[in-house]
Amino acid sequence: MRKGLILTGTLFWLALAIPTFAASDKILLGDMQDGSLAQPVHLINLFDEEGQRISPDDELVLPFSMRGSCADCHDYDKISKGRHFNAVLPDAEAGRLGQPWIYVDAATATQIPLSYRPWEGTYNPRQIGLTRWKFIKSFGRQLPGGIGEDTDAESPDLQARWTVSGELEINCLACHDGDPGHDRAEYATQIVRENFRWAATAACSFASVKGSAQKMPETYDPFMPEILDDPKLIPLTVNYQESAFDNNKRVLLDIVKKAPDYRCYFCHSNVKLQEPDIQHWMTDQDVHLAAGLTCVDCHRNGLDHEIVRGYENEASVSTNPLAASSSCKGCHTDGRLGASEPKHAGIPPVHFERLSCTACHSGLMPQQKTQRIKTSRAHGLGTHSVNRSADALPHIVSPVFAKQPDGKIAPHNLIWPAFWGSLKDGDVVPIALELVGKAAGKILDGGKVSRSGDWPDLTAEQITKVLVVLKNTVEKPVYICAGKVYSLDNKDQLTDTQDCAAKPYLWPIAHDVRPAAQSLGSGGCSDCHTTDKPFFFGRVDVDSPLVSEAASTKEMVEFQGLRPFYTKAFAFSFVFRPWLKIVSLVSCLLIAGVLLLYALKALGSVVKVLSEEEK
């Protein structure tokens, strides 16, 4: 009897579990392919985050939810583990170093690289007091979403703010909306207003959002907006164009499979600042784009959104089957997309062992001094509140030809970290921004910041005063800048040391790609191998708020793991190489003449002997 009950119970629970397992393996309609290359029509119902269907004539009009509107046909959970959305997941593959998020606060002379990925040289946002809510507030302008609440770290106050602002869901339309009216700048504006749940809706051409969650009290309920204690507060409202809905209350979305380049550019644009007279239309386009390729022709992904980044050895950390063949080498040796096979006639093979393809073909051409650039993610390019000044922080210098972990030299962008920290067990740990602001605000010129957004003129005396104040709250306070660690000695005197904790953060670059005729080395060995060429001997700016370090530089060779004297001596040898070639050629001719002379003499001797024998 007892065994029968146990068996019956086991079968009962298995019966309940089978639908669950089946549901988890279910292939959704939008994720199945029938082989057609035609563009599917997305005439769909829109749903809010509670699963209620959106209609423009509803009494309470809410923003539509990407999860609620797309997940019936697409595996939202699987997509959420893709490269653009998985940074906060603990099991996400870090991959090669990439561009960090750079937190900037000129008032406290702070410029620090952040990342949720465990990249060496970056810091987790939580280390400086940025919870996920605050992180979105700072950088959500160019986030495609997917970063949710961290319930273990958020304070009760911030959890209340999450309720008001809502979740920043994955914004599928940020990449896949082909409507030219889709406005990512409006999306950024909504993030500033803390309208996280409204941002994607506001960016669409058929909807507008009024109001600000930032102004709402923590008790505000967006699903009951009429309940407000303060009559001066205006509840958040959504207005949909009635013409966007058909008779069945469905909306036609212009969804494209291949994201257009201009969608990528909102987060992935670069601009150089050294030549203000040269406008974008005067520069040449990346050779691949000029040939008709698009960003997603190379940076491909499937449903899992594990997008190809395109660097060598990516296949060792990526599940994307095209990772191996989508690097420079992979594409040009396989002949994909009509790529020509590089000849590299006359170039010694050692170059391909020690240089990446991008060293010669990508990024800015090296000059005697590095240039300053801006990037979309670092400077908010394309947003309404962008600071257009060339001096605006963060200061990114490029190109820096540095050695990668694989031992090859490649072009990089570089920033010099500047932040306040404490020394713990030999490591520098950043101090929370709130604490720094209280300690340094009045000392650093009262927190006044120039309109350009540049560094304040920081002095050694100011650093000393701030460190003295911080010493009362943290153990062994330090200040990082210009590649040095500044600390106090036993007498509260300022000292500085070179330390790996202060080294710059570099990330490799691959665009824009230049054709062979414009590549580094197309002018011969002298493009790099002379004593004054910037590839080895250019000067890298050391960016610093400290006035005494403002004009300092380092030599490029210091970033390449090479011995400066040997490199200089090797380059010096190229001065005499043309003479060496001439001397070698003349010597060969002389040796050939001598050999020919002796050969003729030998031949004469042989002929003489033979003639005497005949006689």
Q: Which descriptors would you attach to this protein?
A:
615 residues, alpha+beta, 5-stranded antiparallel beta sheet, 20 helices, 18 strands, disordered N terminus
Please give the structural blueprint.
Layout: H1 2-24, E1 42-44, H2 66-70, H3 76-79, E2 101-105, E3 110-114, H4 132-139, H5 156-165, H6 173-176, H7 184-192, H8 199-203, E4 207-210, E5 237-240, E6 251-253, H9 261-265, E7 270-272, H10 287-290, H11 295-298, H12 328-334, H13 350-354, H14 357-361, E8 371-375, H15 376-379, E9 396-403, E10 409-415, E11 419-424, E12 427-430, H16 433-440, H17 460-470, E13 477-481, E14 484-488, E15 494-498, E16 505-508, H18 534-537, E17 539-541, E18 553-555, H19 564-573, H20 577-614
Antiparallel strand pairs: 1-6, 2-3, 4-5, 7-8, 8-9, 9-10, 10-16, 11-12, 11-13, 13-14, 14-15, 17-18
Helix content: 25-40%
Stretches with pLDDT under 50, minimum 5 residues = 1-24
Count of DSSP E strands? 18
Terminal CA distance: 131 Å
Shape: flat
As a whole number of angstroms, the C-alpha radius of gyration is 31 Å
Mean pLDDT: 87
Q: How many helices in DSSP terms?
A: 20
Helix-strand makeup class = alpha+beta
Strand order of the largest sheet: 7-8-9-10-16
Bin the strand percentage. 5-15%
**Main beta sheet:** 5 strands, antiparallel
